[in-house]
Amino acid sequence: MQVKVRKGDTLWYYSQLFRVPFQLVLDSNLNKSVTKLMIGETVYIPGFITKKYIVQSGESFWVLSQRYNVSIDAIYLLNQSINPYQLTVGQTINLPLKVTWPIVQGKKEYDYKEMMTDLRRLKTVYPFLRTQTIGKSVMGKPIPEVTIGVGTKKVHANGSFHGNEWITSAILMTFLNDYLLAVTNIKPIRKMMLMPLYLTSFLSLVPMVDPDGVDLVLNGPPNEEPYRSLVLKLNEGNSDFSNWKANIRGVDLNNQFPAKWEIEQRRKPQEPAPRDYPGQAPLTEPEALAMSELTKKRNFDRVLAFHSQGEEIYWGYESLEPKESETIVKEFSRVSGYKPVRLLDSFAGYKDWFIQEWKRPGYTIEVGMGVNPLPLSQFEEIYEENLGILLASLYME
Questions:
Q1: Catalytic: 331?
Q2: Which of 366, 380, 384, 397 is labelled catalytic?
Q3: Which residues contact 255 (CB under 8 A, 6 or more apart)?
Q4: How far is CA 112 from CA 134, 144, 209, 383, in A?
Q5: What's the whole-number average pLDDT of the chain?
Q6: Are 45 and 25 in contact (CB under 8 A)?
Q7: Would the pTM count as exceeding 0.85?
Q8: Does residue 298 sit in the same domain as residue 378?
Q9: Does one domain contain both 54 and 149?
Q10: Is 356 strand, coil or helix?
Q11: 58 Rama sector, left if φ>0, alpha if ψ -120 to 50, beta otherwise
Q12: Number of domains, the chain
């Protein structure tokens, strides 16, 4: 929500007026002076929307402030050109409405268009949310990173490295929305206030690493050539792509990282396929390269890659992981019920590469149990299990 500054208004005053943490107001207005605002300039109030309201008989600003549980001065602020003592029936005014409902509806087939629409809506209501494009998919779709928090502990989580694991994108976006609701409404999640986590941690999310693959699984082959002909050929003419793991060129993005990639290259498919083909070399695919460059740029303290399925957490790689990795994974296991697995006969994954290069905690979390794509009937259960993991990733030292 946007408001126009009056004489004497400050960001601190707006924080008190709308009962929103000052840090969130500050982070929503980074180019504004903390102590001296210009009269008439625009300021963003996070967690609110403007509701157009038609005045009914007997109503006043005071009556509406009581009904909608907002300060009467907040209503004055949004209606500076209106005489509050001369309201007429049928007149349209602006009301500040606190957003207490989720924007993201994760329990659905969650494709790229759905995610991008949700991100735009979230950014409008929560302007302290930061988004950037880290690269583009093979078909040119921008791959967004979302960041939240101002702390020094840098945590990263990603989803949908594989197209038929799109439920992980819905899980991460639902968590993002719940986080935003919790900090703006000053409400706990699992008896935990999230504002201290906002102040001590910096969370990076790439909810959908492989948008082309997700759209292929959910929406069928694209109209664009040569991609339509290629995927139909690789899928042996079958129009059902529900088992497709690779990107649109038939390369498995989680077999693309330079962590003993040669082992996977020797024993996996030697040409593009619906799954497992590691490519002709590491980091040939733009999606994997974008994740590599982001990780180098951000210098994360820990990373979580969400996959499906198996209800397991892989946390080691070639015994290069630090001691704290085990402490953290035990907490992940406690809050989720998932089984920790240290070593696995698997290489060239994002988590493997991160541990190898940074010697910091990295995790692959296999959400849910069954056959991919996991059914939406599991969504609530999977979300509750992984909500604990995501919170723990922020509060664990």
A1: no
A2: 366
A3: 261, 264, 268, 276, 277, 278, 279, 348, 349
A4: 15, 10, 10, 19
A5: 97
A6: yes
A7: yes
A8: yes
A9: no
A10: helix
A11: left
A12: 2
